[in-house]
């Protein structure tokens, strides 16, 4: 019999790559999408998978919607990727962020405990949980303490702890992947990688004349979403639930990212780059560099994409699509 996977956040970047991976592995793939006033926005990254996956309306905040789906599907695996995923926006809508990213984890774990207790559960935990905490060697790893610097990070720490708690208290297979930043051509336009790439391409094509950013000095460990969904599947496929950090182990500043993209497009960054308070955060997470030795050694995971491969793929994609009105991400 085919394995069944249920994915919250299926319409997002990771949800779409994970769906492709699981379909390749011959799973039945189910997901929930939130109701949105613009219908097309709900399924933009999934249109190529039409008829291959089964979607229904649902919301992590609405436990009854999760109950109904789990009762019906009885999945083997549950991937909780649904979230209010934008860190700066979490300062503007902290209550909604907590409800979705913290209470939502409680809702799905409770629903699973009642209706699908034998399923395996994967929680999308985040390097944002580390906040201002760094080990002496300049890395964050599974043992690094959490000192979150945003409502998003605080809510993710709650989800992480709750996942461990359900694992211990109810002997459920509930596991955390602590993923560092991961991007792709499907990354939303208000995250810094896509914003920089897309704006630079539009400048090159004379459709824009400036790139306005917030903090240029923060450092991030950027990988590719398709490599990271492979890690998710490896983590959930083990016999025992063990939490893992997933990262490239390299870090670059936002300024480094801009330099790389503008050089590639033969543009003079100084002419176009501006900063604005509008894109600053009340508290910034200054530095991320993940040590993923544990997953590399124990599960033999490693990323296929380098930073340059990732950004080059994004540049090529946006060069082909910079004026595609139908692309709503
Ligand atoms: O691309 P970002 O918005 O990603 P951020 O905040 O690191 O969060 C992402 O990674 C987390 C994992 O650590 C995930 F949990 C989370 O869901 C999300 O996927 O910002 C990256 C950096 C920040 O330091 C930000 O301050 O870029 C800086 N930045 C500078 N100017 C900007 C901008 N970020 C955005 N989004 N827009 C700007 O104009």
Give an overview of the whole structure.
This protein has 329 residues and is α/β, with parallel strands linked by helices. 40% of the residues lie in helices and 16% in strands. The protein is built from eleven helices and 13 strands. The protein has a seven-stranded parallel beta sheet, sandwiched between helices. The chain has a two-stranded parallel ribbon with strand order 7-10. Helix 1 crosses helix 7. It starts with a strand and ends in an 8-residue tail after the last helix. The relative contact order is 0.14. The model has no long low-confidence stretch (mean pLDDT 96). Residues 85, 87-88, 126-128, 180-181, 190-192, 195, 213-215, 218, 220, 254, 279, 281, 284, 288 line the site of ligand G4F.
In short:
By secondary structure, the protein is of the alpha/beta class.
Key terms:
329 residues; alpha/beta; 7-stranded parallel β-sheet; 11 helices; binds ligand G4F
Distance between the termini: 36 Å
Helix content: 40-55%
The number of strands is 13
State Rg: 19 Å
Q: Which residue ranges are poorly predicted, with pLDDT under 50 across at least 5 consecutive positions?
A: none
Quick check: average pLDDT? 96
Small-molecule components bound: ligand G4F
Largest sheet: 7 strands, parallel
Continuous helix count: 11
Biggest sheet strand order reads: 3-2-1-4-5-6-11
């Amino acid at each position: 019999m085919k394995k069944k996977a249920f994915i919250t956040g299926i319409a997002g970047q990771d949800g779409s790559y994970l769906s492709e991976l699981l379909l390749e592995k011959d799973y039945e793939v189910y997901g929930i999408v939130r109701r949105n006033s613009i219908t097309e926005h709900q399924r933009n990254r999934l249109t190529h998978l039409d008829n291959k996956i089964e979607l229904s309306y649902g919301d992590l905040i609405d436990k009854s919607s999760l109950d109904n789906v789990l009762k019906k599907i009885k999945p083997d695996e549950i991937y909780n990727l649904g979230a209010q995923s934008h860190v700066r926006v979490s300062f503007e809508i902290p209550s909604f962020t907590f409800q979705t990213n913290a209470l939502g984890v409680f809702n799905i774990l409770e629903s699973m405990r009642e209706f699908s207790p034998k399923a395996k559960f994967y929680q999308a935990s985040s390097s944002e949980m580390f906040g201002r905490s760094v080990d002496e060697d300049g890395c964050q790893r599974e043992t690094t303490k959490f000192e979150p610097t945003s409502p998003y990070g605080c809510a993710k720490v709650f989800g992480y702890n709750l996942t461990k708690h359900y694992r211990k208290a109810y002997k459920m297979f509930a596991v955390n992947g602590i993923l560092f930043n991961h991007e792709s051509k499907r990354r939303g336009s208000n995250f810094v990688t896509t914003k920089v790439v897309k704006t630079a391409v539009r400048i090159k094509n004379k459709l824009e004349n400036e790139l306005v950013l917030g903090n240029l000095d923060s450092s991030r460990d950027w990988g590719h979403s398709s490599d990271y969904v492979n890690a998710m599947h490896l983590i959930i496929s083990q016999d025992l639930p063990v939490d893992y950090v997933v990262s490239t182990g390299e870090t670059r500043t936002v300024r480094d990212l801009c330099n790389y993209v503008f050089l590639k497009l033969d543009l003079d960054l100084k002419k176009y780059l501006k900063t604005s308070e509008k894109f600053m955060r009340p508290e910034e997470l200054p530095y991320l560099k993940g040590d993923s030795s544990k997953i590399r050694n124990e599960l033999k995971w490693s990323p296929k994409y380098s930073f340059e491969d990732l950004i080059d793929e994004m540049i090529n994609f946006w060069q082909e699509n910079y004026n595609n009105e139908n692309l709503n991400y």
